[in-house]
Structure formats: structure tokens, C-alpha cells
Write a structure and sequence with these properties.
Largest sheet: 2 strands, antiparallel
Number of strands: 4
Structural class: alpha+beta
Number of domains: 1
Bound molecules: iron/sulfur cluster
CATH class: Alpha Beta
CATH topology: Alpha-Beta Plaits
Helix content: 10-25%
Order of helices and strands: EHEEHE
């Protein structure tokens, strides 16, 4: 499972980081979240949970 974030849409709320910090992190410079390079949430599925919880639906998941 691979995640990406629509940078235009992200409002930097931090919800995805709270749910899945193995994959997402907040970037100080932009105030938005990004996917940690090379990160893959694999079987844990927490990136999917984060995508469902994102208030602006900015997280795109490719299975
Ligand atoms: S949950 Fe969505 S809006 Fe909030 S920081 Fe993550 S990607 Fe951005």
C-alpha cells in the first residue's frame, strides 16, 4: 500500500501523523504533511485509516 498527499489540499491538521507516524510527518517549512520517503504502511493499514480520517481527503492510497 502506497500513500501520497495532495499538497494543495492538505491543511496540516496532523491527524494523519497521529494515526500513522511510520508513514506521515509534518514539514515545518510548509506546515503540511508529507509521506516519509520510502515509507510504506504495509499490512498495518494505518495509512488507509489516516486517509479515511483526513478532513480534506488529501491522502491518496494506491493498493
Ligand atoms: S490529515 Fe490530511 S489535512 Fe491533516 S495533515 Fe494529514 S494530509 Fe494534511
Amino acid at each position: 500500500m502506497k500513500a501520497s498527499i495532495d499538497q494543495e489540499a492538505c491543511i496540516g491538521c496532523g491527524e494523519c501523523v497521529a494515526l500513522c507516524d511510520a508513514v506521515f510527518r509534518l514539514v515545518d517549512e510548509t506546515g503540511k504533511a508529507e509521506v516519509i520517503p520510502g515509507a510504506d504502511c504495509g499490512a498495518a493499514g494505518c495509512c488507509k485509516e489516516a486517509a479515511e480520517s483526513c478532513p480534506v481527503a488529501a491522502i491518496i492510497i494506491e493498493e
